[in-house]
Amino acid sequence: MHHPGPPRFLATGEQTELAPRDPDPDAAYAWRVADAPPDSEATVGDDAVTEFTPDVPGRYLIGLDAPDGDHLLTVRAFPASYEGVDVAGGSGTAIRDRDAGDVDAPRDYAARERHEGVGRPRVRVDASVAFDGEADGESEHAGEAVFTAVPSPNPESSLDADDLAVTFVVDDRDVADAVAAGRANPRDALQVSDDGRELRVPLDAVPDRLRVHAVSVARDPGEDPRVSVADAAAIERVDSSPSAIDDAAEGEAMLTPATPEFETVRLNDPPAWTADASVYEIFVRTFADAEEGEAFDAIAERIPRIAELGVDTLWLTPVLGHDGKPHGYNIVDFFDTADDLGDREEFEALVETAHDHGMRVLFDFVANHTARDHEWFQDAYKNPDSPFRDRYEWQESGEPGTYFDWELIANLNHANLDVRRFLLDVIDEWAPLVDGFRCDMAWAVPDSFWRELRDRVKDIDREFLLMDETIPYIPGFHEGMFDVHFDATLYFQLRQVGRGAEPAESVLDAVDQRAEIGFPDHAEFLQYIENHDETRYRVECGDAAAAAAGAAIMTLPGVPMVYAGQEIGQRGRRDAIAWDHAREEVRDRYERLLETRRDHPALGPDGDLARVGYHVASGDLSERPIVASGDVHPDDVVAFRRHDGEEDLLVVINFAPADASVAVDVGHGERDLVTDERCVVEDGEGTERIRVDEVAVVPVTEE
Questions:
Q1: DSSP class of residue 44?
Q2: Which residues pair with 598 in a beta bridge?
Q3: Distance, CA of 176 to chain centre
Q4: Were both Cys, which of 62, 84, 244, 554 would link to 593 (CB 3.0–4.6 Å)?
Q5: Contact yes or no for 540/259 (Cβ under 8 A)
């Protein structure tokens, strides 16, 4: 239906885009402010895609008159500015508004995001079903849907969890469905606990699906209120036949014990398979030595060798018809593959080959722009009367909107319903073939489109992955949009360490920043040291640092990525891969790291990260007293713990070109899990130290 989607949580003065979903470009749509706080003067525009900005705190209802009826959308506004903490309170507006002439901006994106004051709190929402005495003991209903919010303060906050407030909002779409089905209005029937942490709705008011969204609100002394990224959970009615129960149990949704007619879903969790996923990026035009039109087949031939490396997810750079530029991001045909790569049938065969080898495939989805060679642009350029003119952004100069010095693309106008319809059709064309989208330039596309994309694919396949290229990353993009986020902050910090500009321990600061700027604990991050846009790490920082950085992305919490050629010591960024000159020792190292990560889930995204005390010396064990010297400096080494409740591991990483000996303030084993060799030695004073080349992973035995 055309309903604009989930409720919005905004700061006063923060703008949000409103758009009808699944639009008919020929239909009429009209917006209105149906209800607002008494002092509000906020309005909406007359266009089908418009903006709304709350001007005072409180609850707003925005109405949409659409061909399928009237829809209402709840907007909750809080007296919070977010200024300096998050980009436009969770949207990409500020990034999209960067100076198009700032050609250095793509390289500056990696700098650590600065924030002032205390950042945003976090919240987690879970759903369950309770019956009779399991509820409050006095319920008049046979059962209740229960939604529980667990707020947590920002790591830099002085507040405790008990100091945080929670605001729940029932999804307007489900309210309408319940009323249409003759059930009680869930909002009229709900009860919120005295502490504000729990919301209950009688089951007779639950339609086929009931979604509840919540935010936590922190009021640190002397600070504006800070509002978390919203989280959401759902309770869904399911077919209670045995076969349907078995099918549901195999998916991410959880059947509630003893209540097989209901299942619960956490709506913003990444797919379960990402907990141990590892990504391999293929720059499709130079990965394999292939003749014109045979690249898909050539890539498919190398799939077994890629699988042997130990990765399980392929990210393919764009495979669609393009303007001839080798990177492939200037699309001219969104519905067919590029002639220089192969035909549609060969692409599908490549995906099937990957699946046969236990690998998932990510499709590179470009939604911000077309190539200037696209037929729309060719008709619209310098032609004000073109029917395609309004499908692009235009500058006063008559040139199309674009970013930086990218002269061969033209930005699409996402306020145009024909553009939205077109992009949704592109999604429907390719999503059924693959396992996820890597969304190019996600920061340049309005939030409302990404929210619609998520609901569209997740309603069909909860395990479909959505990964954003949003640089710098934005916590709000985990609010009903993306599962996994590019971590350019960690990337940049690893480069700084490799250059000798920052101490190795600063990579832990980069990981900590995720929570400090407001990402929820269930968000996941893509960790990489190079990709098709960047100079190879070893070219810039040397072999020793490259080995350590590769180990860091495998042992820090996140989803590691290997860029094709990285595993064999490739030096060229987009050059043909020098398979005949592979450095097998580099590949062996990555195989061991990936195997270690698979065998020890504590190293994955779900494992906790903790700092430890450690002392670094050079590899000379005869030193008295032990001091850093020669090719090893204390700043070259970082040590940390990873634990998941089942296993507790100590990781030591050395960026220096020589071995280091590291004493750590916790008891630990003697064998490195990566090499299966003894790595503990004694120095001249009899102190046990871990001898580490690039990385050592050992079990923790005691405090």
A1: B
A2: none
A3: 31
A4: 554
A5: no
Pairwise pLDDT comparison (85 vs 399), residue with the higher score: 399
Q: Distance between CA 628 and CA 635 in Å, rounded?
A: 10
Q: Are 429 and 437 in contact (CB under 8 A)?
A: no
Handedness of CA 52, 53, 56, 59 (dihedral sign): positive
Beta strands in 343-422 (DSSP E): 360-366, 369-371, 409-411
DSSP state of 299: H
CB-CB contact of 170 with 145 (8 Å):
no
Alpha carbon separation from 107 to 102, 468, 491 (Å, rounded): 10, 18, 12
* Three-class SS state of 294: coil
Q: CB of 635 within 8 A of CB of 503?
A: yes
Q: Residue 55's CB: how many other CB atoms inside 10 A?
A: 16
DSSP code per residue over 424-454? HHHHHHHGGGSSEEEEETGGGS-HHHHHHHH
**Tens-digit pLDDT profile for residues 565-619:** 999 999 999 999 999 999 999 999 999 999 999 999 999 998 999 999 999 976 5
Collect all residues with Cβ–Cβ distance below 8 Å to 469 and sequence separation of at least 6: 438, 439, 440, 441, 442, 443, 486
For 625-664, what is each residue's pLDDT tens digit?
Answer: 444 445 788 899 999 999 998 999 999 999 999 999 999 9
Q: How many Cα atoms are found within 13 Å in the side-chain-facing hemisphere of 150?
A: 7
Neighbours of 356 (CB within 10 A): 12
Each residue's pLDDT tens digit, 412-421: 999 999 999 9
What is the C-alpha to C-alpha distance for residues 64 and 76, in angstroms, rounded to an integer? 17
> Cα(454)–Cα(61) distance, rounded to whole angstroms?
23
| 224: β partners | none
- What is the sign, positive or negative, of the torsion defined by CA atoms of 567, 573, 579, 580? negative
Q: Report the distance separating Cα 87 and Cα 517, nearest Å.
A: 10
The candidate with the shortest Cα–Cα distance to 266, out of 211, 319, 224, 307, is 211
Residues 6+ apart with CB under 8 A from 261: 237, 238, 240
Q: Helices in 72-171 by DSSP H: which ranges? A: 93-96, 105-108
Q: How far is CA 511 from the centre of its chain?
A: 14
Confidence grade of residue 80 (pLDDT, cut at 50, 70, 90):
low
**Mean predicted confidence (pLDDT) in 171-197:** 96
Confidence label for 257 from pLDDT (cuts 50, 70 and 90): very low
Angle of helix 506-516 relative to helix 488-499, nearest 10 degrees?
A: 160
CA nearest neighbour of 80 among 476, 433, 383: 476
**Which residue has tokens 């094709």?**
564
State the helix-helix crossing angle for 295-309 and 584-599, rounded to 10 degrees.
Answer: 60
CA distance 11 to 81: 6
417-430 vs 447-458: helix crossing angle, rounded to 10: 30
* Inter-axis angle of helices 543-555 and 584-599, nearest 10: 20
Quick check: pTM over 0.70? yes
> Could you tell me how far CA 625 lies from the centroid of its own chain?
47
In 3D space, the residue among 629, 623, 673 whose CA is nearest the CA of residue 652 turns out to be 673
Q: Helix (H, G, I), strand (E, B), or coil: what is residue 470?
A: coil
Any idea which residues carry the catalytic annotation?
440, 469
Q: What is the DSSP string of 636-667?
A: GEEEEEEE-SS-EEEEEEE-SSS-EEEEESSE
Packing angle, helices 543-555 and 488-499, rounded to 10? 150
Distance CA 162, CA 160 (A): 5
- How many residues are recorded in the chain? 703
* pLDDT at 137 (0 to 100): 43
- The confidence band for 259, taking pLDDT boundaries of 50, 70 and 90, is low
Phi, psi (degrees; rounded to nearest 5) at 155:
-55, -25
| Residue 167 near residue 76, CB atoms below 8 Å | yes
